Amino acid sequence: MVTDAKNPLGETTCGSLLQKLQEIWDEVGESDEQRDRMLLQLEQECLDVYKRKVELAAKSRAQLLQALSDGKLELSTLQSALGEKSSVGVPEKTSGTIKEQLAAIAPALEQLWKQKEERVTEFSDVQSQIQKIGGEIAGNLSLSETPAVDESDLSLKKLDEYQSQLQDLQKEKSERLHKVLEFVSTVHDLCAVLGIDFYSTVTEVHPSLNDSTGVQSKSISNETLSRLAKTVLALEEDKEQRLHKLQESAAQLIDLWNLMDTPEEERKLFDHVTCNISASVDEVTVPGALAPDLIEQTEIEVERLDQLKSSRMKEIAFKKQGELEEIFARAHIEIDTEAAREKIMELIDSGSVEPTELLADMDDQIAKAKDEALSRKDILDKVEKWMSACEEESWLEDYNRDENRYNASRGAHLNLKRAEKARILVNKIPALVDTLVAKTRVWEEERGISFTYDGVPLLAMLDEYAMLRQEREEEKRRLRDQKKFQELQHTEQESVFGSKPSPSPARPVGTKKVVGPRANGGPNGTPRRLSLNANQNGRSAVKDAKRDPRPVAPMNYVEVSKEDAASHISGTGSGSDPIPASP
Prior knowledge:
Layout: H1 14-28, H2 32-82, H3 98-138, H4 156-168, H5 172-194, H6 198-205, H7 222-260, H8 264-268, H9 271-274, H10 292-330, H11 337-350, H12 355-401, H13 412-427, H14 429-447, E1 452-453, E2 456-457, H15 458-497, H16 534-547, H17 565-572
Antiparallel strand pairs: 1-2
Helix pairs in contact: 2-3, 3-4, 5-7, 7-10, 10-11, 10-12, 12-13, 12-14, 12-17, 14-15
């Protein structure tokens, strides 16, 4: 809150104004809330005025600090350029206000600037002498430009180096001669690789550079060195361009070979070309490796193979399609092979897609098919085990119906051993089915699609199998009850009428035999499904439709056969097996 203070000059103060405002509010009858709001507004306006003044003062201080920092930096730069750790008149430590510090370093800066100008003049004189002597060696005496002085290093040490360089100019002739000979050797090697005449090339630079003249007579002027350097650069660029062109042709050649499965014998004819497909420019040193006739020969071969490409595309594409179909067949995935082959024919004939793109797309499909097959492998392995177990179950039921199975016939002991193993395997079927159902459901939840086996939903097959197995167990229990009832009647008749020889019991109505999906399967991997008769098909389909909204598998994969009920019940003992729950 602003307080009043006496003003000796009688001027208006904040306090007097505030008192006047209070009187006006009292007369008007302003509320306390309105008064507080206006007072807060007055305080905020006062704060804004102070804030602006503080910001202006801070900005002025920052500018002075920046000027001081720039002065110190310039002082340090000049000392570094002159190679002086400290100079007379440069203050070691500065203190006081910012303006006082600026005034303290000003004389030192002025002294260092004067010393710098003197040092630059010395450097310019020495460098001018070096340039003059160099021009004489180069045969050019018309040099008039003053050399530029590097003001970042004006130390006495650098000046001594320039003075020492003046004494070394006598050695320049031998060094230049050595450089010329190196250029000539490089030109010779490049001409050999490119198949260009060396003598005509080097003579165009200077007539004295051929082998007919002595070493000491060769030109070492700046012009000669420059022309040699340009010649080498031009030859290197030509070499790089030819190598790039040859590598492109070699890459096309290899792509066409791979596309058309070209035999190795034919590829070896161009080994001298393909060996440089990944070589750098410096690695190609064999004479004639980049000769024009070699590049032309490679381009002609590429053109020839390109014309043969279209005729081989269908063969190669159908080969890859066959590989894709084989992967799907092994994974028991049904695809429309005829439509796929028609589409390939249409794409090739229309020319709407590049052959390499088509094959790359097919390779991508093959890779995805392999991944899909790999994701199904675990489930398919268990399906195979389930099918094998169902086959053994079918064989065991047939074996139990054989009244002569215990006779001492040839091979009877082998069948007996097989029956023991089959019973163990059949007892594992419910657990195997439960595991298969669980894995299949996890697979379907992860991918959001139904797991089919040769076009039939696997869960529907397992549901149908579980339902038929349950019906078979109920049928077996019914037959056991019927047999017990018949035996009870027979016992009562014997007690009433006495013991009489009874005829052989009539063959009861056969139970359903649950057979694995291989009941109708072919030996060469054709779709293996269970089969039902017409009545069983209708009953199972209705039950499946009520029990599970999933698509019901075609009701053609359970075979129903009549069996000897008494033999079946007494043989396998599987009537006590747990019934697998319908998924």
